[in-house]
């Protein structure tokens, strides 16, 4: 029985890693999946070792991080690797989603793959936010206070929900303990979702740049694509090493090196850079409840793409109008990142409102309209 189980496991590994047929024309843009998997493994490993020395106590949390940095053997490497890999995780994830948007990877028969991927994105953001609170610096404390307070906008039981999350009447020991527990456990749930993501992808195989079926022109995963993945993996490790050893705090906020002080509010409360677009959407809407709905809706709206893209052509490779619309969307996303880091004053508020309106219009109006126009032109041509 044991030999049979080993044999089944080897067959599964062979099916997914060695003999899995992949389209011959996929480019390096398809390498972000392996990079994301590597980041997740790095985060879990470094997170386990960091948890051995971290204290989830408001009086000791900041000091325990200092202890890791100064006293634990090679603790600073663990901390900086964990912190910087989080940023690279989101860089690769945003590229991965952008590639899916450009090449139409969300269209049938890969709707399930896209749906699981969207859930992974949302869960990753939640995990990152929880982790950002743990060092208990100024940005950690005030970020947790501001973001959790948003739930008070929920009618009737909003304030009760906030206090349930806090475990008290403000961000305190109970809050830190809950955030630490969830931050430790959620990556394992993420790993399970990643496996489900790969299983659903394996059913129909990867999409390809041309957006057409390529069942007759496929290569085995190994050695053709495993070595291609290794190129980007080695480059990632090189760049990550440069950040860890030479620029470890470039992607972080300097205020988080100040211990949390409930009596002193920072000049500007902002989340980490990878959450800025959604923070900008939240701030662009004056009504608190509508702002919270818009922030969560800006992520959940990805789920409707398979149903609102009416075009019979997959991807943007042969769709000039969709190419233009895609790059406008990319520019809009970078504008939202910029606006999220600015003070909520004129003209930043107005720019944020326009960028937010375009963000939602892209999914609800622009993508369906372009699909209908293209289908109409194709029918006329035929």
TrEMBL record:
MF-aspect GO terms: metal ion binding; oxidoreductase activity; quinol-cytochrome-c reductase activity
Which PROSITE patterns does the record match to this protein? CYTB_CTER, CYTB_NTER
Matches recorded under InterPro entries: Cyt_b/b6_C (IPR005798), Cyt_b/b6_C_sf (IPR036150), Cyt_b/b6_N (IPR005797), Cytb/b6-like_sf (IPR027387), Cytochrome_b (IPR030689), Cytochrome_b_C_euk/bac (IPR048260), Cytochrome_b_N_euk/bac (IPR048259), Di-haem_cyt_TM (IPR016174)
The protein's UniProt keywords, in alphabetical order, are:
Electron transport, Heme, Iron, Membrane, Metal-binding, Mitochondrion, Mitochondrion inner membrane, Respiratory chain, Transmembrane, Transmembrane helix, Transport
Instruction: Report one GO cellular component.
Output: mitochondrial inner membrane
The positions annotated for binding heme b b566 are 96, 197
All copies of domain Cytochrome b/b6 N-terminal region profile, residue ranges: 1-210
Q: How does it sit in the membrane?
A: Multi-pass membrane protein
Q: Which family does it belong to?
A: Belongs to the cytochrome b family.
What protein name does the entry list?
Cytochrome b
The scientific name of the source species is Laetiporus sulphureus
Lineage at the top is: Eukaryota, Fungi, Dikarya, Basidiomycota, Agaricomycotina
């Amino acid at each position: 029985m044991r030999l049979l189980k080993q044999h089944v496991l080897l067959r599964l590994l062979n099916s997914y890693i060695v003999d899995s047929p992949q389209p011959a024309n996929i480019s390096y843009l398809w390498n972000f999946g392996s990079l994301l998997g590597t980041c997740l493994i790095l985060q879990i490993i470094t997170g386990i070792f960091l948890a051995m020395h971290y204290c989830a106590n408001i009086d000791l949390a900041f000091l325990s991080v200092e202890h890791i940095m100064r006293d634990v053997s090679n603790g600073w490497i663990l901390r900086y690797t964990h912190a910087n890999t989080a940023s690279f995780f989101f860089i690769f994830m945003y590229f991965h989603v952008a590639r899916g948007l450009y090449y139409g990877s969300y269209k049938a028969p890969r709707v399930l793959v896209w749906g699981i991927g969207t859930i992974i994105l949302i869960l990753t953001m939640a995990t990152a936010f929880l982790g950002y609170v743990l060092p208990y610096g100024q940005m950690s404390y005030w970020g947790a206070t501001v973001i959790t307070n948003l739930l008070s906008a929920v009618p009737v039981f909003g304030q009760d929900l906030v206090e349930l999350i806090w475990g008290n009447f403000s961000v305190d020991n109970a809050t830190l303990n809950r955030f630490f527990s969830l931050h430790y456990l959620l990556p394992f749930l993420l790993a399970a979702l990643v496996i489900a993501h790969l299983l659903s992808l394996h059913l129909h195989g990867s999409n390809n740049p041309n957006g057409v079926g390529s069942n007759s022109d496929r290569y085995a995963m190994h050695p053709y694509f495993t070595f291609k993945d290794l190129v980007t993996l080695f480059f990632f490790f090189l760049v990550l090493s440069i950040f860890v050893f030479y620029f470890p705090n470039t992607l972080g906020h300097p205020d988080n090196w100040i211990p949390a002080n409930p009596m002193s509010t920072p000049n500007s409360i902002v989340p980490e850079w990878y959450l800025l677009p959604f923070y900008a959407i939240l701030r662009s809407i004056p009504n608190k409840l509508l702002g919270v709905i818009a922030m969560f809706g800006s992520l959940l709206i990805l789920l409707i793409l398979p149903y609102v893209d009416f075009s019979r052509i997959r991807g943007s490779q042969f769709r000039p109008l969709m190419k233009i619309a895609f790059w406008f969307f990319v520019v809009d996303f970078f504008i939202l990142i910029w606006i999220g880091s600015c003070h909520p004053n004129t003209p930043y508020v107005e720019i944020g409102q326009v960028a937010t309106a375009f963000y939602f219009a892209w999914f609800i109006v622009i993508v369906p309209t372009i699909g209908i126009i293209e289908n109409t032109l194709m029918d006329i041509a035929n």
